[in-house]
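User: Show me a protein chain along with its predicted structure.
Assistant: Here is one chain, sequence first, then structure tokens.
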Amino acid sequence: MIQAKRPVRDVTRPAPQPEFRSAIERLDANERTTLFSDEEFSRLLATLTPYDIVAYGELEPFYRKIVSWLDIPRDRVLLTAGSDTGIRAIFETFVEQGDEVIILVPTYAMFSVYSRMFGAVERNWTYGPGLTLDIDKMIADIRPETRLVVIANPNHTGSVISEEDLLKIAAAARECEALLLVDEAYHHFYPQSFVQHIDEFDNLIISRTFSKAFGLAALRIGFLSANPNLIAELYRVKLVHEISGMAAKIGQFMLDNLHIMESYVEDVNAGKEHLYAELPNLGCEVLRSEANFVFFKLPALVDGGPLVAELENDGIYIKGPFDNDPFEGHLRVTVGPEKQMHEFVEVLASKMVNDSA
């Protein structure tokens, strides 16, 4: 039997997605939860031509839009097929067997997958009570053996690290000649970004995606931003064509019409406020979030497992219950507009009554 040359025995990957997701309430994957309006979708499709299907994509117009939007030079950006392809490129380019990678957890699962795939030694930073972090201890934990530090900001907890503390971490990593990857997948739900520091730190890489606030998860559009030397190294391992031409045209349309993304972010923020107000009335403990999801803990008498199964029977998919710190016993719901969250809370309340009866 033929064996893989690079066996990764301790990596498990999820099963394929079910085929019926278009028919369910998708509150489980942190995607955009509502569709574009007919008018927005028609205008989006009108940007495409038959040429865009038959020819290899022309990406430079999209590059120009991105660097203008970010106000950075062209040589500071590399388009990637989703941020996950960019993250993989970072590991492939800079991480070797036995290198130490520090990851703030819980976070995007692919960070650990790539660490194992490329033979890194993974160490984790974890949260304390109330999602607190001991920044001084984290900084002291970075050492000469460290090759890469990975922080999502906002993280998959919904919490954030301040710009001041990120600057300290970046400086500590630089002293040890370690890279710092700041994943800003949820940036648009929180005003802070670290992109403006890429020229200040020669060890800093920012990853972004168009899957969350822009609502283009199916198109796989992402990018990395860093100083020109790091981008040049990452360019060596890029795909022949960074993304598809059709994806680039639609991404350009979204940057030309930023109000679509901004309006959706406003809708999500209103939806979060609704959950903060209504879930405690059901006896739930709710964690505030700077992303497009909210974690909440059910009352002690309500079993999360059967409740989630009942919601799925009604076509409403959420995540949980989780069994790992700091979210043991919590459920996670992807947030959409206020009306959608109102309907979710109503169904949740009815299921909780039945579950506790």
